[in-house]
Write a structure and sequence with these properties.
The protein has about 350 residues and is of the alpha+beta class. It contains 11 helices and 12 strands. The termini are far apart. Bound molecules: aspartic acid.
């Protein structure tokens, strides 16, 4: 017994010394505000400036936390909250409308150190769904809660409840009206489901960008990822996209990388995009840049999947990869300044 205690003490002391002697990691954060047909000609100078300012604010808020020694989870949470609270993006305030004219939001978060994760789907009364996803991760024995049950859980934990019209914006309402007109025309012209799917893909491209997400690595080398969205305009029947699905829209693992995705969710679910990128890094030794390009421009794109990802690894490398004309994005790596961009370089 004595021997065992001494051996345990030595092991504990050695691991503490090793942990203390490890050099601190290079910190980094990347965010996105959705991918899609984002072209300079479709945005006024004022709109471009508004996006640039909000993206910069979100990157800087997250980076500040990392720079003060805070965790990657706190950094991505803060950055996502700022984007959720801005009507510019399809998450929180400014979320898109469902076919029936309401809002149903999805979000997820993952901690790369512990591989703990939390997600909520189809919530209608929570201003910051990423906070609820985090609460599911830390305060429940589950990974994903949906609809009314998720909101009961939120109330139980003292989270504020908002009316569904809190999310209303005129811009998104106009998008709903346009989408519904196009859907009506689709119904009339599509002879079968295959035709409907092909036509649907075309009309949807313009109506789904604005999902938000963030990935970060902190000084301890822990990565984290989170994603929050209103989903797709005119979604029906309680449709859930990739954003709250761990492995599809969000993934984080210290062994490889952290990913937040945005795009046509049905494809990101079927191609298991976020986890696939990190699996290629872990098992095939690819860089995050290579793995994200192989996935985003690979068979998913050939099948018709559009969108993009932001990725960070524990060494502080970042990748921002998309197969659309643009992706609202921002990033900062230690030793560099904040960058934001919207269009292809
Ligand atoms: N991926 C989201 C969804 O399918 C939409 C988006 O990222 O624009 O719900």
């Amino acid at each position: 017994m004595k021997k065992f205690i001494i051996a345990s003490l030595i092991a504990a002391l050695t691991s503490t010394c090793l942990a203390q002697s490890l050099p601190p990691s290079k910190i980094a954060i990347a965010i996105h505000g959705g991918a899609g047909t984002i072209l300079a000609k479709n945005l006024t100078t004022k709109q471009q400036q508004q996006y640039q300012e909000k993206l910069t604010e979100a990157v800087d808020a997250g980076y500040k936390i990392l720079n003060q020694g805070g965790s990657s989870l706190d950094a991505i949470n803060a950055a996502i909250n700022l984007l959720e609270n801005s009507p510019l993006f399809n998450a929180g305030l400014g979320a898109v409308y469902t076919f029936d004219g309401s809002h149903q939001l999805d979000a997820s978060i993952m901690d790369g150190k512990t591989k703990q994760a939390g997600a909520v789907a189809g919530v209608s009364h929570i201003a910051n769904p990423i906070d609820l996803a985090r609460l599911v991760m830390t305060e429940s024995v589950h990974v994903m809660l949906s609809g009314e049950g998720a909101e009961q859980f939120a109330l139980k934990h003292g989270m504020p409840w908002v009316k569904n019209d809190y999310f209303d914006t005129d811009k998104r309402y106009q998008s709903l009206l346009k989408a519904k007109q196009k859907l009506k025309a689709l119904d009339a012209k599509s002879k079968n489901n295959a035709e409907y799917q092909a036509n649907y893909r075309q009309i949807k491209l313009d109506y789904k960008f604005g999902t938000v997400g963030a990935v970060a690595v902190d000084r301890a080398g822990n990565v984290a990822a989170g994603t929050s969205t209103g989903g797709m305009t005119a979604k029906r029947f309680g449709r859930i996209g990739d954003s709250p699905i761990i492995g599809a829209g969000t993934w984080a693992d210290n062994q490889s990388c952290a990913v937040s995705a945005t795009g046509h969710g049905e494809y990101f679910i079927r191609y298991h995009v976020a986890a696939d990128i990190c699996a290629q890094v872990q098992y095939q030794g690819k860089t995050i840049k290579q793995a994200s390009q192989d996935v985003i421009f690979g068979s998913m794109k050939q099948a018709g999947g559009t969108g993009g990802v932001i990725v960070v690894d524990p060494k502080g490398n970042i990748a921002l990869t998309f197969n659309t004309s643009g992706m609202y994005r921002g990033w900062r790596v230690e030793g560099e300044k904040t960058h934001v961009a919207m269009f292809k370089e």
